[in-house]
Write a structure and sequence with these properties.
mainly alpha, two-stranded antiparallel sheet, Four Helix Bundle (Hemerythrin (Met), subunit A), 137 residues, elongated, 4 helices
Length: 137
């Protein structure tokens, strides 16, 4: 099952983001919370945002694959989502510029990441609806 490849890749990214949060906790000497540190807030949100989108994506990708979506399309959606999530995490953790907690630049990669995330998920949702309609006769 192709979806298992993307589940593995996304798991590795999730672990990387988790380690990045842990490193921030060591750096800022925090057991819990963000210590009102902007850098720590971004680390936590990059991790949390990833955790909010990846599970649903894997469910709909797996359902579409199981329902007969061609392998090339499964890979296309999987690659788009992985790339989008990497761009989003990069932007949120490293690529953006802030002054006094206010975003001052560098949001381009986050925007591209969100568009890629929403596009892959919305198109997969439509694929599932079309597959359901086609098979409900």
């Amino acid at each position: 099952m192709i979806t298992s490849l993307y589940a593995a890749l996304l798991t590795l990214i999730y672990i990387g983001l988790s380690i990045y949060v842990i490193a921030g906790r060591w750096k800022f000497k925090l057991a819990v919370g963000d210590g009102n540190q902007d850098n720590m807030k971004r680390r936590i949100r990059a991790h949390g945002n990833f955790a909010e989108y990846a599970p649903l994506f894997l469910i709909i990708l797996g359902l579409a694959e199981y329902s007969g979506l061609p392998a090339s399309a499964v890979h296309g959606f999987g690659l788009l989502f992985v790339a989008a999530r990497l761009l989003h995490a990069y932007s949120l953790t490293i690529g953006e510029r802030y002054k006094d907690g206010i975003l001052t630049g560098g949001i381009r990669f986050r925007s591209i990441g969100m568009v890629g995330t929403f596009t892959s998920m919305a198109l997969l949702a439509l694929v599932l609806i079309v597959q359901w309609i086609a098979n409900s006769h």
